[in-house]
Structures are given as C-alpha cells and as structure tokens.
C-alpha cells in the first residue's frame, strides 16, 4: 500500500489494561480522611481557544478542517496530509498568558512535536520541549504568552497525517466576570436552608406546604414544582417531613451524623391522585447525608423508582413498604439504598424489588421477587429464589456521589468521595476524597442557556444545577478531565430541535450526578452519551461515573429519543439510573406518540452498572456490546402499549428481550435481574425471552426472573430458551426463576 492511497484510520481500539495503583486506594484502605482543594490548572484559568479562528499547514480533505479542533465537539477533528512537518494554530485574538495546552489526539498522532507561541503569527517561540504524543488525551503544563498558539509536528507516529479531536489552550486572567462564582452561592428560590436555631414550627410549616400542595393532585407527578430542604449541622426538634414528587431533604454536614432530625422523613401511600392505594408511583424524591431518630422507632420510605436514599443513618428501624401493605393493594416497587447505616431492622414488606449497596444494617426482613445486596454488612445470606435474596460480599468498584456541605467557616463546598474497590459497608466517617470550594462551580439556574453553561465549562468551572427546568437548544459538552457536574432537587434538562442534551468526553474522572433528562418533542438520537464510539481508552484508575441520573421519554412533554444513554467509554461506573419510556404522563403517551428504542447502550469495555432500572422501551431495552461488563441488580418492565404482535417482531422472534448481550461478547456477568410483562393494550402479545445472551461459559447470569403482572401478557422464557413461561399455571403473578445460567 502506498501513501497516496491511505485515508485516516478508524478510531483507535487498543487498550492499556493498567489496574489498581496502590497510592490511589491506600487512604481509603486505611480509613484516612483526605481533604484537598482541586488544583487542576484549567480549574483556575480560562479555556481561550474554543471557537477561535484556526488554521493549519494542510488538511487531509474538507471533512477535517482546522476549525474542528477548536469547536468543543469531540466528535469532529482536524487531520493533515500524510507528510512531515505539519502544524495547527489558533488565533486567540489578543496576547494572553498561556498555562496549559490539552491535546486530544486521534489514532494518527505525533511522535515528536512542540508547542509554540507568537505575537504576530510569523516569529515563533517554543514553550514546550520536543514532546512525544500519545493516542488520546495529553495535557502539557507550560509557561508563555502570545496571541497565536500552535502545535508544530515534526515527526508522525503513523503513516497517516496528524489528527486532533481537540486542541485546547488555557490561560489568561481566569474566570469570566459575566459568570460569577461564590463560596456562599445563591441556590435559588426552590431551596430552603435551615439551621438548628430555626424553630421546628417554621420547618414543619415549610415541608407541609410543599407536600400538601401535591396531596391528591392530578398534575404534581409531572409538575414544575421543585423543593429542596437543606439542614446545616446540628440537632433538630420534632420534624415530620412527608416527601412528595421532586422533593429532596439533605444534610449539610461532612458526615451524616452532623445533622440529626428527630421525627421522620416519611414516604407512604394514600396521597397520589389516581393511585391512592399503593406506592408504585412514588418516584422522583430523595434523602441524603443526614441522620434520623424516628418517632416510634421506625422510619417509613415506601418508594419506587428514582427515589434514592444515600449516606443516611437511621437510628432505629426502616420500613420500605406503605402503611396499607396488608390491605390487598399496598405495594411499592423498586428502590435504592447506598452508603447508609440502619441500626435496627430493615423491613421490605410488600416492596417488590430493592437494591442495597455498601451499607451496614442490623437485619433485613422480607422479600417479594428480587432483593439484591452488594457490600452490605448484615445482609441476609444468598438464597435466591427462596427467599429471593442475592448477596455479594463486596461491590467491585464504587465512587460515592458528590455532596454539598458547609465547612467550619460557613463556606459551601462539594465533597467528591474517592474511588473504592471491593468495598463493603458505609464510606463514612473518615471518607477519603477531595473537597472543592463552590467558587470553582458555576451555579446554573433555570433559564440559563446551553451557551452560557458551555461558557462556564470552557473557562474550567464545574457545574452545579439548582432545581428547575432547563431548555437546551445545544448540547452541553463536558471535555475537561475530573469535571464535576451535579445537581440537587431533580433539575430537568430538556433538549429542543433533536439535539443531544449532554455529551461527556472520553477523558478521566468526569462525574455526573443528580440530573433528570426529559426527551423533547423532536426526536434526539441520544439524550446523553459518554465517550466516543469505537474509542477504547483505559480509565480503570480514574473512571467516569454516573449517579442518580434519570431519563424520561414522555412526561409533561411528548418526548422522543432513539437511545436515552449511550456509554462508549471503558470502565464507566453507572450507579443508579432509571431510564423510562413513560406508560403515563402529564402529556398523552402511546406506541406512536412517545417513541424510544433503547434505554441503555453500552459499547465500552469493563463497564459496571450497580442499580440499573430500564423500562418500557420499544426494542432491546439494554444492549451490551462491550466486554467484561457487570450488572448488579436490574429491574425492567416491558412496554405496556404494544398494539399487536405484528408490530413487535424482533430479530429473533416475538418481541425484544429486555437485556441483550451481543453475540460477540465473551465475558459478562449479571446478578439479580427481573423483567416483568403487562401487555394491557393487547394481552395476547408475547415476547420469546426476557434475557438474550450468547451461550458462552464467560457469560454468566445469576438470580434472574420473569413475572407477568396480573397474568397480563406472556414472556415465553427467562433466558434464551430456558426457564419456562409466565403466566405460570399457578397464576397470581408467580415468577419464573433461573438461579444460574449457564
């Protein structure tokens, strides 16, 4: 093959399989608290190059212009002709001090290059030594100044040209004054902050007002209301907080025991319009980072999807079922508990399925179909299906969710817990991690545009979303390693015009948490993506993580999206998501109305999902193409609204499996997975299998089941052609269980 016949290579697929670095986990192992302020140079300096004029010595063709390397889009790139030397330069518009250059190389990179600056674009000064490039992200700390900055490549590493996804220059005077930051930020009108000196009657009145406005309301489930109640460190007198839709209660201490509430943080049935008799629609609420001394000894948290309890200390008992659970209709259906301590007994009662991770409990009583535990001290023994407990001694990889707290000086900070491996028990007190001052966050508020949010990211800030709805006419692009993107009070991102709402680059350590996505009325190919298709970079030491991220196709909006979440980056941690194509909403729903093929697409290798809820999509609901994937707890309901069998024929027969592992995957594990059918539009509809996986010894499923809810609709087998059908001859929503496959 001669050079003139070459075209740019496909994205690189090689991996560096480094594993655990001792220093990265030593502090956590020894139980030492590590608190440090983030010092990434780009967190203090501005991104100067994005969107500025760029030129190059050559381009391979018009598809790969110089401007593509400074457009903030990691899916476009500059590529040169196949010769040495070549350069790419950006005009910053005025002379700036330069502190850092970040190069995101495609597979065709430089084996020797320098970074140069110039005041006039003709006389150049080296501000870096001759440097070898690398496939993927490369960060150079430099010192210099100039209006023009260029990468001057002298030797290619491949027969191809030089190719950069992004060329980022940082420096200047720092933050944009139009994007103010503060260590005592305004969190907006939907956030109430209490102190121990606040009268209990004031707190009670505030939480009652929020809840009573939702009491048997026909609109609250998909309403615009958002309520966050934050408690500064201290002890609070009797507060009985009923928790409704889009409501969060959280402590502002560094540890849960820094905030003590006497009374209850209560979720029950009997109040939701049209569904008063059960708790199966108790969605979108949360409790975090506080302790409760429950009145009467037991706190009630009868929730279903998208209702996490994290970093909580229950100084008594905890029940997860509604108070009418013994009256024939009292069900709750699927919750999540992590990084918590329950001194007494956890009673699950009529809770149909539940996942508990890295916690300590006194004892667990009960279980209906699918109760899963990983890293839980005091968990029941593994006994699936009778009783239906699936228990793992540890969780393979964890990084707990970032949380807001107030330091001793009254300043606000975000604590980012460190990565743990083979973890068990709560990660507090003495949590290892990093404390970031709020001045390094842009505090987003409803009404902020995508351009304003991207400008904050471009100047090196993290993002903190306050409660409310954000309409986005462009994609929010997170490109800097270790960026924290978090929210409180279920901030909801709605794309318009079919754009993707959030794009996370294939770089180390980005953390996304506490966000809700609503599909817009114009179909989006994806609502959120992580990494770039076809690229496999080893992030094992510092993975990207997603926590409490929820997706809806259909809500108050008749949304459409082909795939809600696509994960391309290797080693990504998916810790508690709910991807939901709505079976009901504030706006009408239906088979041809709120359309969506797939909830989760995983192309990355070594991806771990802990607490995976995906429901009602129209084709394969989870597609797992990456190798060495692991899921601990999976909950699914098939689409209710299939009109007839002819409308729902998949590649291998009737319908689509809920959980599809690609035929070429050689290594995959799932512990504790349930898929349920309720084909109420046409009960004659059937799906041939709930789980579809290749028949290989390395692909292993443990504790999986199917249920026909109310015996409405048929799932013919659990896994491939194994397990038998539901409805069972026994009827009465009796599950089919497969303990191990193969």
Automatic annotation (TrEMBL):
CDD domains, sorted: GH55_SacteLam55A-like
PANTHER family noted in UniProt: F5_8 TYPE C DOMAIN-CONTAINING PROTEIN, FTP DOMAIN-CONTAINING PROTEIN
Protein name: Discoidin domain-containing protein
Every F5/8 type C domain range: 36-172
Pfam families per the UniProt record, alphabetical: F5_F8_type_C
Signal peptide residue numbers: none
Domain of life where this protein originates: Bacteria
